[in-house]
Amino acid sequence: MPRRHKWELGAVAALAVATAVAGWAVARHAPAGMIGRYWNNAEWRGQPATQATGTVPSIGDFHNGLADASTNVGSADWSGYLLVESSGTHRFDLLSDDGGWLDVDGSTVVDNGGAHGAQQATGSVSLQAGIHRLRVRYFQGGGDAALRITWTRPGGPTRRLEYFDVAPTSGAAQLRLRLGRFGRLLSVALPVLWGLLFLYIPVRLVGWLTWREVTRQVPRVEDRRPLKLVLAVGVALMVWGIGFGLGQGWPPDELGPGEVRRAFLSGFSNGWHEKYPLMHFAVLSIPLSAFEIAGRLAILPFDSPVSDAAQVALARLVSLLAGVGCLVVVFLCTAELTGARRAVAGSVALLLTPLFLYYSKTANLDVPSLFWFGWAMLGFVRIIRYNRLADYLLLGTGAAAAVATKDQHYANLALLPIAVLLINALMQPSPTWSGRLGRALVDSKLWMGAAAAVGASAVLHNMIFNFSGFVAHVEELVGYGPILPLVPATVAGYYELTRRTGELFALGMGWAWFGAALFGVAVASVRKDRRCWLWLLFVPLSFHLAYTWATRNVHDRYLYGGVFVLTIFAGASLADLVEAGRRTRPARLLAGALTAYSLLYAVSINVMMTRDARYEARQWVHRHARNGTKVGLLGAGEYMPVIEPPALPIRVYADVEGLARVKPELLVVNARYAKRYEARPEGRALLAGLDDGSLGYREVFRYRAPIPAWALLQYAAPFSGTRESILTNLDKVNPEMVIYQRAGH
Question: Residues 365, 236: one domain?
Answer without folding.
Answer: yes
